[in-house]
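In this section we walk through a basic example: taking a raw amino acid sequence and producing a predicted 3D structure, encoded as discrete structure tokens. The instruction is simple. Fold the sequence below.
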Amino acid sequence: MRIASIFAVVFFAACSGTESQGQTGPGAPVAQGGPNTSFEPAFVGQTRAPEHRSGVDIESQIIARGLDQPWALEFLPDGRVLVSEQSGALRLVTREGVISPPVAGVPSVDARGQGGLLDVALSPNFAADRLVFLSYSEPRGDNLSSTSVARGRLSTDATRLEDVRVIFQQDPPWRSRGHFGSRLEFDRAGHLYVTLGDRQQSEPRVLAQDLSTHIGKVVRIAVDGAAPADNPMIGRAGVRAEIWSYGHRNIQGADLQPDTGALWTIEHGPQGGDELNVVRAGLNYGWPVISYGEDYTGFPMGEGIAVRDGMEQPIYYWDPVIAPGGMHFYRGELFPWRGDLLISGLRVQSLVRLDLDGERVVGEERFALGLGRIRDVAESADGAIWVITDDADGKLVRLTPRR
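The resulting token sequence is shown next.
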């Protein structure tokens, strides 16, 4: 990875200076306050991209409310929405906003702290096999828990999951209530990426660099939980064959780039340093050795460095953080954003749009929708954008351009 050039230094200083004076204009980044750290970006445009306003005014329609801390949403082929609640319920919501009773058969979850029922994904062959995949914090005894993945067959009346079985468990389990990840994303071969957190504490955090564990990793598994034969760690002694990439902190957003099929992820940094990465087979993304953030105490993370040979740089980072939830490449025509990346912002309580040129961020736009913390984002067949909010009176909201 390249170290910061003099041009990057000038760029970062100019952006920071513009921010501190509260000015806007061509080339100015989104208003967000000063950074927490003094790191210099490794290349021009790695942070604080210019604000690119698309001229879109968003209309919000609340479809349903009263969901209990919803975490993820997934569309069924008929347009109904599966919504996971952290407390452990999986619900079905109609386009008219009718919320079902909990779907039966969901595994028991450890719903403390950041844990609970997390992501939900449909099999690529759902029309034929009706398989639903769930990630969740699984109680593992003695106050331990892990991020696990289960699959079950959705009954024809969509009231229960049948033949439910656990296909993956993050090892080792840990006595922690934080940093479970966890996003599920199928690749073009039908294999499943699972993003796994570092479990938040200082002791497991360092295991993000340990290939004998699943801590702080992205894993890639077949639909039965086995490691595919073309995984990068296959055949290496003492290494988990499921590992796709490592050195991650807490990834809660993932999507395949529609043109290339590459896996893009977004992960929470500490105080500063939220990261957008293109995650490739076998690579090391650096946590906790390198980071563009600092510890919540205000002290540096580790050696206080953001660049090291052999460790990948994020293609973009935020300082201060946006606290990213889900992410989605827009594929529709309703908004003029085809190919742009949409991110649900928790801390900033906004929908964040990134304008891309290949694997570089060239612009950023934020929409403060007045909905609160936005946990996940998805797209329906008509090109409308749907989000859920992260609270005890959680809302399912449909977004369209105001005409």
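Looking at the output, two observations stand out. The first helix runs from residue 6 to 20. The chain has three helices and 23 strands. In the next section we compare this with other chains.
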